[in-house]
Every structure is written in C-alpha cells, then in structure tokens.
Specification:
single chain; about 90 residues; alpha+beta; Ribosomal protein S3 C-terminal domain; 2 helices
Length: about 90
C-alpha cells in the first residue's frame, strides 16, 4: 500500500474483498478458521484535505463474545504520501 498509486488503493481493496468473499470456502475449507475481519481507516485513494474513509471486509461467521472462540489479532499503520492508514486484521478460529 505504501508504494501503490493513490488511485489504485480502492481497486486493490475491492479486489481483496472480492477474493476473500468469493473464495473463502476454497481457502479455509479444511482448516479451523471460522471467519476473517479486515478493517482499514484513513485517506483511501484521495489527496489533500479530504475526509477520511473507512472500509470493512468480513467473511464467515464469527463472534468476539463467545468464550470458546480464539482470535488472532493484529493492528498496524501504513504510512502513505497523504497520511497514515490504520489496519486491523482478525482471524477467528
């Protein structure tokens, strides 16, 4: 994302969403993965003094309140030429 052109941020995220939703069963059929949650916040594909955007991708079934659910959680930032993007990624199994 850091070296991707600003106009291609949304294209990349839409492609990621398409792949995760359409091919979820193919990738995780034989594993214990129940669901995936991907969240990105910041200036997505815009320049200057623009409003920040939020994009959420979630597939499968998951609940963060069940006692038996295990969560692998990662949170990070991506620095771009227009600012910072916050990224959250969770795998529920």
């Amino acid at each position: 994302m850091e070296k991707t052109n600003l106009k291609n941020h949304k294209k990349f995220l839409n492609l990621l969403k398409l792949v995760l939703t359409r091919y979820y069963n193919f990738f995780f059929l034989n594993s214990d993965v129940l669901g995936i949650f991907f969240d990105i916040r910041g200036k997505l594909g815009v320049t200057g003094n623009a409003k920040k955007r939020h994009m959420k991708i979630s597939t499968g079934t998951y609940s963060s309140t069940k006692k038996k659910t295990k969560i692998s959680f990662n949170q990070s930032i991506i620095r771009t030429s227009t600012g910072v993007l916050g990224v959250t990624f969770c795998i529920f199994f």
